[in-house]
Structures are given as structure tokens and as C-alpha cells.
């Protein structure tokens, strides 16, 4: 294992994923990259004509600066997460698009040997209806995936 890609979402629970993924990568002597995906932020800036009786897009002008600000917040978050590890060799990659597809594509392009992902505690019904990013990745990946369970504290 030479390269470990760690998927990070914008949530305090990601700290556990990053720390445990990083610890594993260091035991393997592997290079580390953190990846965070913004799912289709441009979608919200599309100015559609009225459809299905809904005029919201025509009346509500989306400030395109908001999209730029979202990207900047995500970029700073990801950079800070990488810096927090105290290892200048850790890289970070911010991407946009459908989360599982983007992670898999970047893993291929970066030649990752392993993916590290957190799994959230979703209800059974939610998993059946929507699936999860982790399960979508597991169905399509050709490299090992190390899953770190992340549960809400109740």
C-alpha cells in the first residue's frame, strides 16, 4: 500500500475518520490524500424557466457568489484538516459532482491503493430507499475500502 485516499465530509464526525485513516496509512508507510466532494453546487445557480407551475427559480435570483463562497469554505476546511495532522506530506483534493463517482474517479487518477471512508448510522429504510455513498463506492471499487463506523451520540 503506497497511497491511501481518505474521504472527508463537512461534519465533526470526520475527525475520527481522518485520524484513524491517517494512523492506518502511517502504519502502512503510505502517502495520504484527503478528499472532500461538493455535490453539484452549480445546480443551485441554474436559472430555470417556470416548470410544473413553480416560478421560484425566476423570482429567486441565486447569488453566484454564494457558490464561490461555498467552495472557499470547503477548501479552507479541507486545508485545515490536512494541516491538523501535522504532516506536510498530506495532500488535499476538493472536487465537485456526484460524491461516489467523483471519489472513485479521483482514486483511479491518483492511483490510490486503498480508500478510507466513514459510515454514518442511517436507518434501514433510508438505506433501502437512498443507499449510501459508502455502499455505492463498495459496489464499484476495485481497491480495498477501510470503513470506519461513525454514529451519532444519543
UniProtKB/TrEMBL annotation:
Gene Ontology CC: cytoplasm
Start and end residues of each UspA domain: 1-149
Q: Which InterPro entries does the record match to this protein?
A: Rossmann-like_a/b/a_fold, Universal_stress_UspA, UspA
Q: Which Pfam families match?
A: Usp
Protein's recorded name: Universal stress protein
Family of the protein in this entry: Belongs to the universal stress protein A family.
Q: Which UniProt keywords apply?
A: Cytoplasm
Q: Which organism is it from?
A: Christiangramia lutea
Where in or outside the cell it occurs: the entry states: Cytoplasm
Does this UniProt record's set of keywords contain Lipoprotein?
A: no
Highest taxon of the source? Answer: Bacteria
Where is it mainly found? cytoplasm
